[in-house]
Amino acid sequence: MALRPVQVNIKALDHSAVGEFWAEALGWGVSSEGPGVTNVEPGGGFVWPDPIAVCVDVVAVPEPKTATKNRVHLDLATTSAAHQAELVARLKALGATPADVGQGNVPWTVLADPEGNEFCVLEPREIYRDTGPIARVVVDCADPRAMARFWGEAMDWTLHEVTDDRAVLRSAKGVGPYVEFFRTSGGKAVPDRVHIDLLPYPGDDQEAEVARLRALGATDLHLGQGDVPWRCLSDPEGHEFCVLGLS
Predict the structure, then answer these.
(1) What does the alpha-carbon distance between residue 144 and residue 197 come to, in Å, rounded to a whole number?
(2) Digit-coded pLDDT (tens) for 110-154
(3) Is the pTM of this model over 0.85?
(4) What does DSSP say about strands 194-200 and 166-170: parallel, antiparallel, or unpaired?
(5) pLDDT score of 52 more than 90
(6) Cα distance between residue 49 and residue 65, in whole Å
């Protein structure tokens, strides 16, 4: 048994506006599976769930983002210095604003979407040339080695690197974005605004997967979600995530 990451979930006051921003940022399209949700997915006949693509779901919530930096964010890939500059300019025209998260003088550009969710536009890096527009999903953590153990067992992705400062996973197919855990100071201070959603494979049982995750160190999370087809959990460092139900 194993799970696959299928989408990054972003909470927003205005899901439609934030969804449109991310669709324009990624060059993808938008749809809606129901009220209060904007689905941002690749075009060209894309059918969810794709074995490789990690999509973006923007979900309406009543609370605005706090000033606290998100512990999960997206990094966007570029192919040249000119592409990076063009993308940054285009994103600002779409409503992105410069963000200071203490990054100092770095070759990448830190921005925030129209509701303040931080993300980065990376300088060209060979490792991310075949990822698509999302180079990586970045997760702040205290212990990358512990995160590698948990998420490496939770998902069917391949662990490419693990050190005291960083853990890197990618689809075993060797394409698509990476998920990377970076060691940072400070723990969880507010509920996560951005999280990863996992999906079982056809034939696997959601409840069995949830039980397996609990055995790995996950805990149940009660957010007032009520009777929904997904299960809310948190990993050993408190990062929220959901195990979706197979439709």
Answers:
(1) 19
(2) 999 999 999 999 999 999 999 999 999 999 999 999 999 999 999
(3) yes
(4) unpaired
(5) no
(6) 28
Residue 246: predicted pLDDT = 74
Which two structure tokens, joined as six digits, stand for 119?
Answer: 């993300």
Q: Are strands 240-243 and 194-200 parallel, antiparallel or unpaired?
A: parallel
CA distances from 166 to 94, 156, 173, 183, 242 (A): 32, 19, 21, 6, 23
Q: What's the CA gap between 47 and 41, in Å, rounded?
A: 9
203: Cβ contacts below 8 Å, ≥ 6 apart: none
pLDDT at 189: 87
Q: CA 148, CA 154: separation in Å to the nearest integer?
A: 10
Peptide bond just before 49 cis, omega within 30 deg: yes
More reliable by pLDDT, 246 or 12: 12
Q: In terms of residues, how long is the chain?
A: 247
The position carrying tokens 């990377």 is 180
- With beta carbons less than 8 A apart as the criterion, state whether 180 and 141 touch: no
Which run of H or E residues covers position 149?
helix 144-154
| Angle formed by the axes of helices 81-94 and 15-26, nearest 10° | 160
Classify residue 155 by its DSSP letter. B
Q: Give the span between the Cα atoms of 195 and 73, in whole angstroms.
A: 9
